[in-house]
Amino acid sequence: MRISKLSLKKGIKMPRSIITFCAVLGLCSLMITGCGGKCNKSSKGKSGQVAADRMSEHYSKVSERLELGGDFYFYMNIDGDLEKLVDMIQKMVDQVRKSDKSFDMPKVNFRRILSHLGLDGILALGLSSAKDKDLYHNRAFVYLSKQRKGLLGGYGGKAHPLTLANHAPADADLVWESDAHFKTLFDILPAIMQEFPGGKKEVEQMFNELNTPIPELNLTVKDILNQANTRIELVIRIDPEKKLNIPGENIHIPFVEFMIGLDNMDVVFNPVAEKITTAPFVEKQDQAPWQMLVISPPFPEKSDFEIYKPVLAVNQKTKQLVFATSPGFLKACTASDKPLIGAKLYKQASRDLPTEGNGMFYLSPYLYKKIQPLLTEIAQQEEEFKVIKLIMDALLSDTKVATVSIRVNEKDGIFVASNEASSHKTTLLTMNYANPAVIGILAAVAIPAFIDYKNKRRAEAASYEAEREMEEIQRKVDELERNQ
């Protein structure tokens, strides 16, 4: 007698109709949370600003950073709300620990962790948007009670002149510079670790490991961290006319050039140079003020990617460490004869924005159009991606103006001013509607997958029990044969 094992088809392919239905259902779930019929009328009384004795104590500090009377305004006082939230979590965890002896979560003071993260100093926040011809003036302000620390300290120190637009190429599609105090962020870790049992010992062990040289490099992690309060530069340019074919895939990607730079990180260059300059595909070049390692990767013959000649370089004057896709693009990003700051699109989008700050972001209106053919190819091969592409097409395909955003660290908060094609209202609505849609899509895939998993487990269990019974029957048959 033979008992065959049950098997199930691997993986599932959801019909498009089910995915679409669940996505629409998710969208509808948000709409029906409003008034179902007639809403209650507001109480009678004069409209206008509330009396001074009832006004939120942080309203004036936030509103003076925003533009009032535009298309959108939002203010929220969250003074003490995060503390209340962690206190509630603390109480719940403590109650579970008392009632369930098997609950082995270490005893931790969540209030102190919130303080280490620097989030206990957030008092209020506000947003505003005002239409100006083809773009919106968007403003945001996070009001703080104390000096930035913890996570907020990672955004840098005092505001300073923003310089990347002065030398990035005018035809760049994305340009970003930002202060990034990684050492400040790392300093949070030991404080949080010590809040847990045995944390002090683990901190000592961690610092010992930081002083251990990185294998094959005359450099330690601590050496890097000591220089890690840096500034990041990123420039991306896309040429959709040049198509690169990914080997083994029926997808063509546009030619992408990029450069990423880190200030004060020259400490990394020499140890790396000593290690890789002996390789036959690495050439060391000096073009003042740059010292470069030009890499010619051994791509397969006739590969589309042969066009790339990556370069790792250090500016001997500014101590900036840079990685770029080619020496030519490095030059285009550091000494362009047609810089971004002189481009019409940038001038239009940067009007009335601060010239000093701690971060700048520029996005070309042509970026999405350049990558749209690639997304179309992906959507043709991946059914589930079609919904995502439809959303992206609706939001991004008609953009005609560039986006420029400036972030400024102020004494009492963080201010962000931007000019872009959409308002904060559009952004918030998109988030509210997209989230239920994503949940619907995930449900459409996850629920059948879970059912499939349960059926598979049941089949395996049935097969296992059948095998056990078969073995028992065979054992008894063998025993009877021996007795005869």
Structural overview:
The model is unreliable at 1-21 and 27-44 (pLDDT under 50). The chain has 15 helices and 15 strands. Helix 13 packs antiparallel against helix 14 (385-396). The chain is α+β, with helices and mostly antiparallel strands and 484 residues long. It is 39% helix and 23% strand. It has a domain at 127-457. The longest helix is centred in the C-terminal third of the chain and has 60 residues, at 424-483. It has helices at residues 16-31, 59-63, 81-99, 110-117, 164-167, 182-186, 188-193, 199-210, 221-225, 269-276, 327-334, 344-349, 367-381, 385-396, 424-483; strands spanning 72-77, 122-132, 135-144, 160-161, 174-181, 229-245, 252-262, 282-287, 290-295, 311-315, 321-324, 356-357, 359-363, 403-410, 413-420. The strands form 2 sheets. It has a 13-stranded antiparallel β-sheet, with helices on both faces. It has a two-stranded antiparallel ribbon with strand order 4-12.
Quick structural gist:
The chain has helices at 16-31, 59-63, 81-99, 110-117, 164-167, 182-186, 188-193, 199-210, 221-225, 269-276, 327-334, 344-349, 367-381, 385-396, 424-483; strands at 72-77, 122-132, 135-144, 160-161, 174-181, 229-245, 252-262, 282-287, 290-295, 311-315, 321-324, 356-357, 359-363, 403-410, 413-420. The chain has 15 helices and 15 strands.
